[in-house]
Each structure stands twice: as structure tokens, then as C-alpha cells.
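Friendly challenge for the regulars: who can give me the C-alpha cells for this chain first? No prize, just bragging rights.
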Amino acid sequence: MYEPMDATNDLLFEALSFRLDDKPDRVNNEGMLAILDNAVKRHPRVTFVACHFANQTYDLDRLGKLLDKYPNLYADVSQRESYLAAVPRYAKRFMEKYADRLVWGTDQGYSLPMYRNSFRIWQTLDEHFYAWDVQNTRFALSGVGLSDLTLKKLYRDNQLRILKK
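First reply, four minutes later:
Bragging rights claimed.
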């Protein structure tokens, strides 16, 4: 959604509002990642939680490299579940691998439909459903079907570990 509005951008409907390539006075996505990388590197005793999968839902391998590089970096999953629901098997592999470094969160308020949709995506293997009432995505979603152990870490254990640091 932060990239140019062209044929390679499958979030064109969001790029209209969020694109950064036409805003020279703002840091672009690459710049944001460089700032994150530098901050985490400079402060190894500080725990960082990168919101929204560090805006890397389109390239989880890149986020994985950052998580591998920095033991003090975590990522939250807020507001990005629908993007990963478009690639549920890839998302599951990533989230199971990095289960100790991901935390559940939301910045979408207190909407019961939003919570139901988020939990449906993470907890079920449901296929081809829509959540137009709570998501701005217009493509079909599928459940990721995370394991009980990963869900426990995502919803509870990782937050407790961060807070105890």
C-alpha cells in the first residue's frame, strides 16, 4: 500500500490513500525500515515492537531476517491479518517459525466484528470468506490455522515476557 500505484501493487485500493512515492517530504517504506534497523541495532538492550509486521506483510522473509538479526525485536500483527489471510500457508509457516517474536494487538478500536474476524483468521482453517464490515480489503480471506502453542504465545506469553524485561 505504500508503493507506487502500478500493475505490481495488489493493494491499489489502499495505495490511493497510503502511497508514499508521491510524497517527497515523507520517509518512504525503505526509509522506515532503515530507521527501524538502525534504532534496533543502536539500542540492543531496548525491546522494540514493530507495529503491523513492520509493514512487511508483502515480504515476510525480509521481516524474518530482521527478527533473526535482532533478538530485541518483536512484531505485532495488528491491522494486517487480512493481508496474511490472502496467503494463509505462507503466513502460517512464518508465524509458527517466529512464534516467540510476534504479539497480537489491534489499533481498530473495540469492534466485536473486528475481534471475531481477527480470531477467525488466526485460529481457523476457514476458506474464502469476506469481512467487508471490518476490513478494507476486497479479496477473499482464509484462516491461517495457527497451532494452539503459537496462539498462546501470540495472545499471552510473548507480551508477558516483554513486560517482565
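The chain has a mean pLDDT of 89. Residues 123 and 145 are 5 Å apart (CA to CA). Your move, everyone else.
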